[in-house]
Specification:
The structure is a homodimer.
Chain A: E1 5-10, H1 14-25, H2 27-33, E2 38-44, E3 60-62, H3 65-69, E4 76-79, H4 86-97, E5 101-104, H5 107-124, E6 128-129, H6 140-147, E7 153-159, H7 162-174, H8 178-187, H9 196-199, H10 202-216, E8 226-227, H11 235-243, E9 246-257, E10 260-271, E11 283-290, E12 294-301, H12 305-321, E13 347-356, H13 362-372, E14 377-383, E15 391-401, H14 402-413, E16 423-428
Parallel strand pairs in A: 1-2, 1-4, 2-3, 4-5, 5-6, 8-10, 10-16
Antiparallel strand pairs in A: 7-9, 7-11, 9-10, 11-12, 13-15, 13-16, 14-15
Helix pairs in contact in A: 1-12, 4-5, 5-10, 7-8
């Protein structure tokens, strides 16, 4: 009988407790699947007195997770504390330096320090596994790193934040405004009390940084990502989108282009019929374009104790079997710089909504600005209101350089007849 | 430098040539991803003279693939010959017995001889890999066996045959009948000259047998699968389905029930809004329900040189890395008997279409038969035609035992007023 693999769990929130439950619920099956027995040896959290609804008596307790990772207490440290720095980072560094495998659900940590941590893991000859950090219910890291390994990945895009997708889905279905639906999402527990990480796109960007690294073999580049959230999406844009045959989704997009890698998180108009548009509510969905497989799509729950713990345990079993795959698919020292392309150099189609005073000559001014910036209009809609009231003018623009579009909108914004900041949403034409 | 991993490819059809192309296109990337260099050493096919559009000069040639698998020519045999028996089976057995890894795209071989071959592989300490056998573009075997390993899989269902899905999609969109669309599919190369493997559900059943085994840890049980194809689906059923809010798909379904495992391939009515209903044309889609992840969905191309070769090469790279996972996730000797439940014991909802003579009393007879068999109707539609002509009566039945439904339909068929064999399609209410 080989020695058991000793697991230490740091952080006993819902995912930590969920991981204990998954390991115990299917212990017998796991024993038949891996050559080494798994045993939870230790747990670490701040407050030992708190009732977590689970019996912790059999485990060695650590108030300080870093102590658990030092010495010879465990073989795998499961980091479920969260946060890109502080204790989570220290714990991970100490664990790797002490020759312990690390399994983490911490997207911020990997998105910001992933390359350095991967190098530390590979130098120490241990695994740093993070399937749970991106779309827990979907084994997308394994799919990209192993299942689709034969392909050059040219693009991936996805709905990476369930909170935003829930809010946009609800706005579309009920016609309510953003703040109303956010409020509801908070009361249902789908959004945090401080929702900015989700609704400003940061959480999605963390996940995109990780996916792009695995897909392209590039160093993780969170700072290079262009990030916009969904605060500015209004019911009127959702209505116009619908009229034009589109839905609005917050997408993370990573694409290989002639000029380098694009990495961007922002609301997108996507064709009503596109598979990604059918991913609703709190679900996540990721599409991957490989040069040999064409497009493959993955959908599932992105958060919650069950899906996240499922991914954590899959990583633990991979370690128990000894699946020797580098952290990002290729050795971390060989990851190329991401050289993320500036958003101004993005080429794409655009939706623009202007609020204008309804008087003669407005349209001529707008058309002149478009012509002067060599940006070409594909279609235009004008929604009439009561006489004398401001009017919404909606345009879609043919594929253009983003820098040109930004200049065009700046010029339009400076017209006296344009009375609100123009609203711009990028249009993506995924098949 | 470790010794190169010597690959021998048996079968040089489109997938064999595609595999050579993938291996050569990304040779440099692969070298950075695995610790052993890969080298194609030998190829085997019947006709050396045939022009395959690819340079074969650098490889040792074998007219007989079994000779390539004997002796010390290669370390991995890639079996792309096809067929459940004959040369493909002999080649695989000889390769395993000689301590060579086998990578195969052969669903029939694995569906019928998978358990025995897995035992042979595990005894010899080599890998038998078959990602390419099921939905090539989707790494579903890896997802089930590794990515979702923490879950008890309660059900999986999917569109496993692109030919059938293309035909049903075209029938729905154009209103044309089955034979018309089959004819078109044949001329487009989406259906074989002898299409029965596809349209009678056998190909889908091969794949379902493999998926069920990996999902449930049961021995492969192709013979236990209830298989129906799509020949009997008529435009009128597609029309009625649409009116009732359903689409018609050929699905493979494997489910854990109180009485045992259901394994079945047949046309299903699925809710128009269900994600699986949005998988159109030649695409495959598979939904997996795990007890911790809930439902996860995978979509992509199921066939073709690129997607299939992508899966073959992913398996080769797994072997080169030394990912030591048992063939079906648990050691083959521990696979439980499948104990597939008889279809008569299936409980579900049903769509039934009767063609009746339009005269008084018909409905009373039908209602009496339903009552006598304790089968309860959920809704009924009658489509009027010209006076005196036969009438279509469409019913949906509440959840019932299939044996009762079959008896009910037999009794209805024996009525003088029912002038065609009743058409029955199962209704699945996937969320």
């Amino acid at each position: 009988m080989t020695k058991p693999l000793r697991i230490g769990i740091a952080g006993l929130g819902t995912v930590g407790v969920g991981t204990l439950e998954v390991l115990s619920a299917h212990a017998e099956t796991f024993a038949s699947r891996v050559p080494r027995p798994l045993t939870v040896k230790a747990v670490a959290a701040r407050d030992q007195a708190r009732d977590r609804g689970v019996d912790l008596d059999g485990y060695e307790w650590f108030d300080n997770a870093v102590d658990m990772a030092s010495g010879d207490h465990v073989d795998i440290v499961v980091e479920l504390i969260g946060g890109s720095d502080g204790i989570a980072k220290e714990l991970t560094e100490v664990a790797l330096a002490n020759g312990k495998h690390v399994v983490t659900a911490n997207k911020a940590l990997i998105a910001i320090h992933g390359t350095a941590l991967a190098m530390a893991a590979e130098e120490a000859g241990v695994t740093l596994a993070y399937e749970a950090a991106v779309a827990g219910g979907i084994p997308i890291i394994k799919a990209l790193r192993e299942g689709l390994v034969a392909n050059r990945i040219d693009r991936l895009y996805g709905i990476l934040n369930g909170t935003c997708n829930y809010i946009l889905t609800e706005m579309e279905q009920s016609g309510r405004n953003f703040l109303d639906v956010l409020d509801e999402a908070q009361s249902l527990g789908y959004a945090e009390a401080d929702p900015s990480f989700d609704i400003d796109g940061i959480d999605a960007a963390h996940k995109l940084a990780i996916l792009a690294s695995v897909a392209f073999g590039t160093a993780v580049d969170f700072d290079g990502i262009h990030v916009e959230g969904i605060r500015h999406i209004s019911p009127i844009d959702i209505e116009f989108a619908c009229e034009l045959g589109y839905g609005i989704k917050l997408l993370g997009v990573a694409a290989r282009t002639a000029g380098g890698y694009e990495q961007r998180v922002h609301p997108c108009m996507v064709l009503e019929s596109a598979p990604i548009n059918h991913v609703s509510g709190v679900f996540n969905g990721i599409a991957v374009d490989g040069n040999f497989v064409d497009t493959t799509i993955y959908e599932g729950r992105g958060a919650g104790a069950g899906p996240t713990a499922s991914a954590v345990v899959a990583d633990i079993l991979d370690i128990a079997r000894g699946n020797p795959v580098p952290v990002f698919g290729i050795p971390a020292r060989n990851l190329k710089p991401a050289q993320t392309v500036d958003m101004g150099r993005h080429r794409g189609a655009y939706y623009v909504r202007l609020t204008v005073v309804d008087k003669p000559g407005v349209f001529a001014d707008i058309a002149t600005i478009l012509r002067d910036h060599e940006v070409s209009m594909e279609s235009v809609l004008q929604r009439g209101r009561a006489p004398g009231e401001p009017v919404s003018v909606v345009m879609t623009l043919h594929e253009s350089l983003e820098a040109d579009v930004v200049n065009t909108l700046d010029a339009m914004a400076s017209l006296d007849t344009v009375i609100e900041a123009p609203c711009m949403i990028r249009v993506e034409t995924f098949a």
